[in-house]
Give the backbone structure.
Amino acid sequence: MIHNRRSFLRCASLAAAGSSLALRPFGNLSALAQSAGGYKAMVCIFLLGGNDSNNMLIPGDPAGYANYAGIRGPLAIGQGSLLPLQGQPSLMLSSMLPYTQSLFNSGAVALVANVGSLVAPTTQAQYLAGSVASPLNLFSHEDQQTMWQTANPVATGTTGWAGRVADSLALGTLNVPMAISVSGSTVFTQGAQTSGMTVTPGTAGALSCTETVAVCNARLTAAQQLLTFNSGVTLIQADDTITANGYSYSNAMNRALSSAPKVNTSLGSANPLKTQIEQILQIISVRNSLGAQRQIFFASLEGFDTHGAQLPTHNALLQNVDAALGILYQQLGKMGLANEVTTFTMSEFNRVLEPNSAAGSDHGWGGHAIVMGGAVKGGNIYGTYPTLELGGPNDCDVNGRWIPTTSTSQFAATLASWFGVSAANLPVVLPYLSNFTTQNLGFV
């Protein structure tokens, strides 16, 4: 009986499946509204594969650049093409980041240096002696992606820090969850009391059923009626509740988006972030219809695992990120929301400074992040830029693998505080934050 029911549900059209809920089996999926006044949103762009941020923020003074170029060899970006940063004479940006440079110089972008997963502040001596706990499975893509998304450096975890932010701000009923991914299911958006929603870019607001309207509606009605049956089995009833919530959230999202024009930006069609950015902008445009005072979005870009022939590949990836940031900020400005939306990059780790034999770079640790928005205290570099020295004071090895001087917990706490999470709730959202004396980096 259960098998037949499941088979039917799989075959049935599940109501405008362009948007679907990322469901956890037994969580409480009641979407909850926020008490904080005014609208705010956060947009995370995750750079999957380990962004080589050594080639993003680069020494610009003659001695610093010569040292960088001498170590980087075939990976070095030409000094003449580097982009100057106002008020930062010793550091420059990659030539692939002109929008980022312009926004930094105008005060709408901040850079956070040498940030990464940490259990507690860690010096080189402590790391080498093993006297301070290190994050779980350092230098592993999957594990460190999870560490960044959960802000839990010692366990894989089932909730993300964005999901826990949603938990902490939840007080009433929302039409859809606060945290939304436009890049598939992700732990980042999952809370303990709330669950994230997954929206497939470019399809939200459009029905996926290919039959006539009458047939599609009949299938949907039948599928929903199945969920009202009392099986007498607790786990099945809990699953039915989750699926019913999924219908509700999907319907609410599609109703809101069906009456809103699709967003078409000037991002090139070859940019993998194009549809994700446009979907985020469209959802933001219907925030009032959704009853949303707070929204958190997750987007991602793959391809940063550059073990070979790195320079052209990484340059193209940075161009895509830069263009997406520039267009997003421009469009939010047109919507009058530049000050209400803060966008930031994350990546599981940096890459080592020293190139490998294939003109690529291997897995590193601490790296640099971009934070963008009208509320950002931009034009500054927060944190501590590492000493570019193989085996030097920031190197956990001998090839330029930087021990972070700022933790993901501190990075997330700064964003969460701006978003409205109270000081009392920060330890719940970020359980390892108490290990760090400075809990707000001040960049927003």
Q: What stands out?
A: The longest helix spans residues 234-258. The chain has two domains: 1-19+207-261, 31-202+262-435. Confidence is low (pLDDT under 50) at residues 1-35, 206-210, 237-244. Residues 147 and 339 are 29 Å apart (CA to CA).
